[in-house]
Amino acid sequence: MAGDVGQYIAYTFFKVDPAWRRLPIEERVAGKEAFAEVVESWAERYAHLRVYSTVGVRPDCDFFLWKITERYLDLEEFGAELNATPLAGWLSTPYSYLATTKASQYTSARKPRKIVPQGSPYLVVYPFVKVRPWYSLPLEDRQRAMDEHMRIGHEFASIHNHTTYSFGIDDQEFMTAFECDEPADFMHLMLTLRESEASRYTERDTPIFVGRLVDVRSALDALDGASARVSA
Fold first, then answer.
1. Annotated domain spans of the chain
2. Is 124:210 a contact under the CB 8 Å cutoff?
3. HSE on the CB side for 43, CA within 13 Å?
4. DSSP for 157-214?
5. Is the distance from CB of 116 to CB of 43 less than 8 angstroms?
6. Inter-CA distances, 166 with 10, 39, 86, 150, 173, Å
7. I need a labelling partner for 61 at 20 to 30 A (CA). Which of 14, 50, 71, 212 fits?
8. Fold agreement between 8-100+212-231 and 122-210
């Protein structure tokens, strides 16, 4: 981070074992309570900690955590406390991504930009990798392509971009996260970006996750339909 205090950004995805839903309701309630208490206690220690539900959207995950901290060990210590809860024995982690902040070489910024969630109702997250020939282009060519890319992004004012960097610390090069008011809005942004020059140099931009911002207890109640039973 070149002497500047940056942030670590992590996205951890969880999938519950369907067999957990056959446990007595008292066991499920106790497991959810213990898990929620750990998340709520760590929310006070992280710079930002958000929970997003993906129930009914993707078959491979049920919810995910967006974690932002300046202390790398927070990620390990938080994970260890979650692992100590009864619910953790029924959860798998099909995806987990790590990134950090740095100043973009395509803007005038000289310090890492702080990632501050806007509180939009939806977050779209995906790992991103460019093809290697991109890095062989002259800087002026890359700058031109990125200027177009950023100009298009600014046309979608309700969408907030939180790009972070994973070079050397995870399998992808970037983690891209976009807060939006409506998932369809993001679809239109991505469709427009497909026609941009920079899009030619994309190697991978999947899997893509659309999460709905919720409190942790709502996310856990969706795992066994408790939230649906209450609302009914």
1. 8-100+212-231, 122-210
2. yes
3. 13
4. TT-EE--EE-TTTSSSSEEEEEEES-HHHHHHHHHHHTTSSGGGGEEE----EEEEEE
5. no
6. 10, 25, 32, 20, 5
7. 71
8. yes
The closest of 214, 6, 42 to 123, measured between CA atoms, is: 214
Q: In this predicted model, what pLDDT tens digit does every residue of 98-142 receive, in sequence order? A: 999 997 777 766 678 899 999 999 999 999 999 999 999 999 999
For residue 53, the Cα-to-chain-centroid distance in whole angstroms is: 11
Contact by Cβ (8 Å): 67, 75: yes
CATH H-level, domain 8-100+212-231: superfamily: Apc35880; domain 1 (3.30.70.1030)
What's the pTM value of the predicted model, to 2 decimals?
0.93
Sign of CA dihedral 26, 32, 37, 38: positive
- The token duo for 220 is 């856990």
